[in-house]
Amino acid sequence: MVATTHKGEGGTKRKLTRHELEIRVFGVIKWISIGFFLVITVFPLLYMIGLSFKPISELLRNPNGFLPSWNDITSLETYREVLRPTDQGGQGFFTFIRNSAIVAFITMAVTVALSILAAYAAARLRFAGRKMVTWVILIVYLFPAVVIAIPLFVLFTRLGIRNSLFGLVIVYVAQTIPVALYMLRSYFQTVPVELEEAGMVDGLSRTGVIWKITLPLAAPAVAAVAMYVFMIAWNEFLFALLFLTESRELWTLPLGVQQLDTTEVPKTLLMAGSVIITMPIVILFFLAERFLTEGLTAGGVKG
Amino acid sequence: MTQQTLARRKAPTLAQREARLGWVLVLPASLVVLVLVLFPLLWNTGMSFQRIRLIELQNFNFLDFSDVSLRNYSRVTGVSDFWATIRTTVIYAFFGTVFSIGLGMWAALVVRKPFKGRSVVRGLMLFPYVAPTIAVTFVWTLMLNPTFGIVNEWLDGLGFQQVDFLNRQNFVLNLFGWHLTLPLALTVVIFFEAWRYFPFAFLFILARLQALPTELDEAAMVDGATLTQQFRYVTLPQLRGVLSVLFLLRFIWTFNKFDDIFLLTGGAAGTEVIPIAIVNWLRSRADLGSAAALSIVLALILAVLMFVYFKWFYEEE
Question: Which of A107, A145, A167, B36 could form a disulfide bond with A172, CB atoms 3.0-4.6 angstroms apart?
């Protein structure tokens, strides 16, 4: 449309063809876009980290300057206060970190163990339950967590396990099994059957095959799945809110930050709390980015 | 024949042993899902017809179906803002989905061809998606804070009035004499959705783009197609499959989303969606039966929308 008059290859005064023009324009747009995406993703992260070091008074004085001074960084005052136990006037985030870590690690271990078994059966063994596994995955995948939140709230209250980390863990296991199952099943399907058959010929039992041949070959996938389950359990908010609001000593990190977001607690302290929640996840992700990226597109982690 | 059946009865065949092992292996995971997902789903339907208050929970007899009625349904649908809540949910889910996929596609096209530092850029772009919801919603609320948020500080610097983005329902835009009312808080929440979930679409679309055969693009180029034409007639048709799957997944998940809006606005200023209303029935009104009924309504609406989508819009990959 613009400058499309093509004077022929031999023409002396050759104008840009539309194709050449587009290559130039999009060459520029591409870099502008990269800049745009970097700004929208990195700036909030920087803002969060920057403010997490600053005393609230400084933020109120100058809302524009989110970069902390050297003093703020080295004194770590906000972090100290957030982590200090409540009886010493702090916010007691150590307890929340401990709770979150317990919940996330146990969920991870249980989900991965149960999913490995079921995923192996679904990938390798010929039996009627194969289809069922697919259904289980689909149902939990598509079903809204809010729909099961009410009955679970009732059930757990009646069983007396609502106000406990144990209750939270079993809900998280149920919520993460489908994703883990799906990812592991697709991975097990890529492990050559011949290797397993060779193992059987050599006298290994089925469990021996799973333990000594399939699992070691699937180790990267198992690691990726484990990290995902950890992330989901670490970040979860709805069930923690419904189950644990009344008992502060059981709060997980997300619930702690949300509950303490009141007028009494300075926002920058909670920023420090947010950084504490975010860092393990970001570090995990950068350590194993490629793996996790592949796992993500394979499983479509719900979120 | 008879010999074979006899032998089978004595010792299980290999196929039978395999099947038995299969059941044993899937049993634990299936039990967990059965007890904690399927059973609650069914039970929820039952509760939605009963009158259950939070205080009577400990002594309530759930098997007593003598007082079953549609009372809860008429209560939740009779609330004055019921239709507004549904409208908000649909708008939020639709635009949140479309914008996040659009942004994701743009990002995928930008990093499609290799360049220096591509893997770093790709890694950083995943941050909004992998970071905990509570952390990113908190950063957004702080950035948009009317008194000390940095966005308002910039607006102030540009000579605009300060805006309370997350607590203001409507914003009247004055475009050359045209008065346009923008649902401000809802728009911000939709932008948040697009921002937070574009990496998800980005990863899927990028994976698909990189699996596309390059011959088609080259052929189109030889035939004199420009970049926009290549995209429109060669690339885009090949992305249809992944785009329909993405739309489906993101729409369902956004439709059910609770945390994001709850943490950004608490459901105020015209951002109350059905999941928030459900939790409000439980937490503030202590009415379990109505909360259950509304969650069934949510599932039904979603089912209808999914039916429409599969019938008329979905394209198989």
Answer: A107
Please state which architecture CATH assigns to domain A92-299.
Orthogonal Bundle (1.10)
Cα–Cα distance for residue pair B186/B191, rounded to 1 Å: 9
Burial track B220-258 (b if 16+ CB lie within 10 A, e otherwise):
beeeebbbebbbeebbeeebeebbbbbbbbbbbbbbbbb
Per-residue pLDDT of chain A (303 residues; tens, 9 = 90+): 444 444 444 444 566 777 788 888 888 999 999 999 999 999 999 999 988 888 877 777 777 777 777 777 777 888 888 888 888 877 888 999 999 999 999 999 999 999 999 998 888 888 887 887 777 777 777 777 888 888 999 889 888 888 899 999 999 999 898 888 888 888 888 888 888 888 888 888 888 888 888 888 888 888 888 988 998 999 999 999 999 988 888 999 999 999 888 888 888 888 899 999 999 988 887 777 767 666 666 655 555
Considering only the beta carbons, identify the residue of A129, A144, A253 that sits closest to B256: A144
One-letter identity of residue A126: R
| Inter-chain CB proximity B132 and A128 less than 8 Å | no
d(CA A300, CA A223): 16
- Domains in chain B, please, with CATH? 80-135+190-313 (1.10.3720.10)
Instruction: Write the ipTM.
Output: 0.85
Residues of B in contact with A37 (CB under 8 A): 107, 110, 121, 125
Strand partners, B172: B181
Inter-residue contact A225 to A208 (CB < 8 Å): no
Read off φ and ψ for residue B19, nearest 5 degrees.
-65, -40
Alpha-carbon distances of B216 from A284, B15, B231, B235, rounded to whole Å = 38, 47, 11, 9
Give the separation between CA B35 and CA B41, rounded to whole angstroms: 10
Nearest-CB residue to A47 (from B62, B128, B139) = B139
Bridge partners, residue B209, by sequence: none
Burial A143-163 (b: 16+ CB within 10 A, else e): bbbbbbbbbbbbbbbeeeebb
Domain spans of chain A, in order of start: 18-86, 92-299
Interchain proximity B253–A302, CB inside 8 Å: yes
| Dist CA B284 CA B36 (whole Å) | 25
